Request: fold
Amino acid sequence: MIAHEQLVRDYESGIGVPASDTTPSADPGGCLAATLPVWALAAGSVAAVTAAANRIREAHQLNPVLHRLDPDRITAAFSSERLLRIGGAAPAIFADLSGFFPTFDGWVRTHANYPHHRARLLGALGLPAEAPVDLAVAHMAMSRASDIEELAAAHGAIAVQVRTEEEWAASPQGQAAASGPLVAIDARIDRGEIGLPIGASPLQPLRGVRVLDLTRVIAGPVATRTLALLGAEVLRIDPPRLPEIPWQYHDTCQGKRSTLLDLRGQLPLVNDLLAAADVLITGYRPGALEHAGLTAARRPGLVHGRISAWGESGPWGRRRGFDSIVQAAAGISIIEGAPAVPGALPAQALDHASGYLLAAGVIDALVARAHDGIGRDVRVALARTASWLLTASGRTPRHPQAAPPSPLAAVRNGNVTTAAPVLAEYPDYAWPAPRYGADRPTWPLPTR
Reply:
């Protein structure tokens, strides 16, 4: 692993410390009010992006941008689903089998927003796919939380036992999640071209950088949306036979292109796109892409950004997970609620913060590659971000209910209203989320 002194300063000790006089240390609007210091995590992760962006500007010999960390923009971006409107209607964030459910000896939290995850959860409970919700709830109420957790993992479903932070810290998976850097950057063995693409400008320091985006939900798409905001050409690939949740797509695909490709059936085309990419961002479990035949080392000097729920090592390294699931397993739900009634953070803060941290790490890996031509793996994990939040100082057990984000921090394009970019220097993204899958699977920029 590369010892990256600047990353350590920005991503660990720097989080929660005001970057300037315009960055207060407490949530100024109360939009992220919580027992845990969510505002510090949010502001710090965004500050990491602004610092990394200035480092690549310096590499381009461009003047730095004096970024103003706008609290309204940051809290709106982290709470973006609360501002999102499609045709004037707010989205339904969680499906009927996604949430907290009482068990024989405690609580579980499930995630079944996608139809295939719902079917797997019902299968783990020994129920048919058409089983009514009431039957599933009754089944969980008669089961032990730990049994549901293990059955879910065995069926590829997503459910965890709600733990205390002490229980999580004492578990092998909790200890694995807490180890290692917040943003890990490893050198690859290949060497590619040295230098940066031409055409960068102060507000688009990533112009000419090609990013292949194979992520969904929040953290990965937030990372690639941030790279697009800074000028990168981002092409998102989705599988044609796996449905996407429309509101999540509209909320995180601004400034990108969208295409549909079967990783197995159209593998040569995917590998051709990868061969011409500078950056690959994935959210697959370890080994999944290699099993599918995707050659992550195809392009010499490739920067591979990887987001996972639990980290890539430890007993849960191959398990699925989402922000709400990590909160429940790691003890956050008990902290923000109570053992009798679990709660949650006021935003999907682990997802958003991890996305911005991943974007910052990818930018720094591009800067490093410009000097030595070496590709790098950049890794973040929701559970590692949760570990930082759990050990950070500044808890406020007595806090008001989180306020709604400011509507002034929203932008409207057609019938879709979304949160404005987290960086105050940008009034909007280059374009709203395009029609799903509408773009050709090609790079519009000339081959270099």
